[in-house]
Each structure stands twice: as C-alpha cells, then as structure tokens.
Amino acid sequence: MSEPNIARSLAPAPPGFQRRPNAEPPRQRKNISTACTACKTRKWKVAIVPLYDLYIANMAPSKQCTGTVPCNNCVRSTTECIIDESNDNRRRLALKRKLEELTEDKKLLVQLVETLRSSSNEHVLRLLDLIRNKNGTLDEIKAYLDGELIDSDFDMTPEMQEVQDHLEARASRRSGRRMLDVTWLSNIPVVEVPAHPWTTATDDDGLVSFLISLWLTWNHPFSNWIDRDLFIRDMRSKDTSSTFCSPFLVNSILAKASFYCDYPEVFEDANDPESRGMHFYKEAKLRFEQEDGRITIPTIQGYATLLTRMFSTIFMKPLDLKKPLRPRLPSDHEDDDAPEVAWSPYPRHGDDQASHLPCVCNNLSKLNEITVEAIRRLFKDESRKAISRADMETIISSIFPRLQAWYIDLPKCVQEGQTAVPHVLVLQ
User: Which terminus of the chain has fewer CB atoms gathered within 10 Å of its CB, N or C?
Assistant: First the structure.
C-alpha cells in the first residue's frame, strides 16, 4: 500500500495575472570591508546585511556602518561621512596600490639613471650630495629632479644636439614672421605714398610705401604698362577719383608686391605661409566688384597686374592684336637734359644704376610684334589642323632673319655686357 501524497498542490494563478513588468531583479550582494571614519571612531564594524536591503528597508543596526557615503548612522547623527579607501585592506585593492607605488618608483629610478648618465656637471654633484650626505628621501629626490634641474644645463649627446637644432630651426621659421625685422625699420623707400584712402587692409604709410617701392623695383620694369610718374602723382593726391590711380589698382599692386618679402605684415595670418598678400587681394577683388562694369585706365591696369599670364579664350587661337598707334617711348639718350630714371636693388643697399626703362620697353614691344606675327602665321588655321612641314620651314625662314636683325639693332645700353639690371638681363 503506497503512502498518500500529502504535498499540497498550488492553486493556479487567477486569469489575467501577469508578473509586474517593473519587478526588479534580485540584487547581488556587494561586499564592503571599510567603515566610515565616524563609525571607526566609535569602533563600529561594517554591517554584513546586503547593501540593497540596508537602503530599502533601513534595517542597519544602530552600531553597524552600512559602508556607503553617507551611511545611515551619519545621516541620523548629521555627521560628515568620509570613507578612506586607502585603508581598505582587501587583497585586490592592496595589490593595486602596491602596483602603483612600484610604477612610480620605477619611473624615479629611470629618471635618476638618465640624469647620472647624461650629465657630468655640478648638478650631478648636488644630486649625489642629496643622496649620500643628506639622506634624502625618494620624495625629496623626485622633487629635485622635477623642479630644480634645468634641461639646458646638461651636456647633451650629439644625437640630442641634432634634435634640438632641428626643433630650434622649425621654431625660428614659425616665429620669424611674428617679429618685425629691424632691417625694415632702416629701409628708405624709393617713393613715399599714403595708405589712406587707397586700402583698408593697413593704415601704415611705411608698409605701403615699402611695397610700392618693391613693385616699382622688381615688377614694373617687366610690365611697364603703368606710367610711374602719373601713378605716384595721383596716389599722393589721395583723390580716389583721379585718372591714373584707384583703390583697385593700389591693392592689386600691394598683393603682387607681397611676394617679394617675408615681413609679417604682408601675411593675412602670420602662421600661414599661404596667406601672403591675401588681405590685399581680397580687398582688390571687392574693389573690382564695386566698379560695377565701369572701365577706367586704373581698372585695366589693376586687372593686368593681378594676372601673370593671360590666355586666349580658345587654346592656341591667334591673338587679334594690332600695332599701337602711339609712337614709341622717348629714349633717355635722345635728350641729354632729360632726367635719367635710376634703379637700385631695393631694399638692399647699392649704387644707383641707369634703368634704361624706355629702351627696354621699346625693344620688348618690337620683339612682341615679331612673336605675335609668328604665332598668327603658324596657328592661322582655327580648326587646329597641323600645317605641313614645308609651310612651317617657310614661315620660320622668314621670321628668323627678323629676330636676328632685332638682336643686332639693340641699343648699346641694353646689349650684352653693358648693363646688369634685371629687366635688361631678361630682355637679353
């Protein structure tokens, strides 16, 4: 006879019953081994009741610490609750603190060895005196190494010296544009012109005079489409409606002249080498837009100044140029009483030399006439069909004697070996 099953079966859950969705999962017990300072003073131990239960049910015994900040006892007694984790003697935390201490000691040892190895001056003697005679602690030695030794006082190895020289060279290139060069202060510009009202990028008359002088020295002789005297006269008048000067032309020249120097004032951003003359260029562009289609002599001259080379709309299309109707520029040698325009290597100091600008301009124009005719004859077919070799030889045979005659007829002042100014050398 089997024994009756005396276990009572559970009643089924009522219809529609569901477990509360917000029912919290069982909390894991968190072991806490350090009591707060106030509880330690009272010699109270840490409660072994799970932390979650202590918070929720507020069941902490009156003489036990919950191990939290703040603990229940400190809350009841309105006492500041502080837990010193450095006194936590649990194995894991103790090992972590020991590892950190050993790491710091290793860094100190490496720093000490490197100091003794790389230096043979008085700082080593002071360091040895601190260790041998004064029985300095590790903290005192570390403070001496970190605070009192100056890196520049050590005797550097050749490798370290090479690294330092490289870094100093880079620093000098970065900081060179931030500092005003004293040589600029001693420069006497070729011409003195005002900054206002021609540009708003700078109000420094000296800088504007310096850049205009650079442009007249190194660029104007090669692109002599601006009358020097008329331009300077109108710029000095400060009249923005003058015939031979305009804000657009001035800013175009300043932007171009900025490429001839490295002073910080010619950079829009002293730390960006690509910003050379950009503040003048941006204002020139704005001034050009303000012209609103109005064509003047300074507008054409300023536009040509900004372009280093102009291309035809159609590639290799012959230029539709006609010979100018005005006569050639009068040579300085035709009139002994005419003042000679001098040239000097500004801003460097040097003796003035005759510029021979009219002679260079006249003979460069003659050379351009021959060049334009050669291009027109070689590329007269706008369909870009290649001409025959026989036709090419015929054209070259007729052009080359003219080039030879041009070279023979050069005035003596611009012939080879006579003058050593840049624009004459380029012409030769």
Answer: N
Element (H, E) at 46: strand 45-46
Is 229 contained in some domain?
yes
Sequence letter at residue 398: S
- 298 contacts 249 by C-beta, under 8 angstroms: yes
Asked if 216 and 224 count as a contact pair (C-beta separation under 8 A), the reply is: no
Question: The tokens 């009272």 sit on which residue?
Answer: 42
Specify the number of domains making up the chain.
4
At residue 314 the predicted structure's pLDDT band, cuts being 50, 70 and 90, is very low
Distances (CA, A) of 282 to 207, 214, 263, 397: 18, 20, 19, 48
pTM: 0.41
Domain of 400 in residue numbering reads as 342-427
Contact by Cβ (8 Å): 413, 356: yes
249 has a pLDDT exceeding 80 = yes
Q: And the tokens for 305?
A: 């100044």
Rounded distance between C-alpha atoms, residue 178 and residue 276, angstroms: 13
Contacts of 252 (CB under 8 A, 6+ apart): 280, 284, 302, 303, 305, 306
Instruction: Measure the CA–CA gap between 81 and 69, rounded to whole angstroms.
Output: 6
d(CA 246, CA 239): 8
pLDDT digits (tens, 9 = 90+) for 385-415: 667 778 778 887 888 888 888 787 777 776 6
User: CB-based contacts of 193: which residues, under 8 Å, 6+ apart?
Assistant: 205, 208, 209, 212, 232, 235, 236
* Residue reference for tokens 């540009």: 199
Relative to beta strand 342-343, strand 353-354 is antiparallel
Same domain, residue pair 202 and 274: yes
Helices 278-290, 297-306: crossing angle, 10 deg rounding: 140
pLDDT per position as a tens digit, 167-199: 555 445 444 444 444 455 556 788 889 998 999
Has residue 120 been placed in a domain?
yes
Per DSSP, what are the bridge partners of residue 313? none
| CA angle (234 as vertex; 231, 240 as ends), nearest 5 | 115
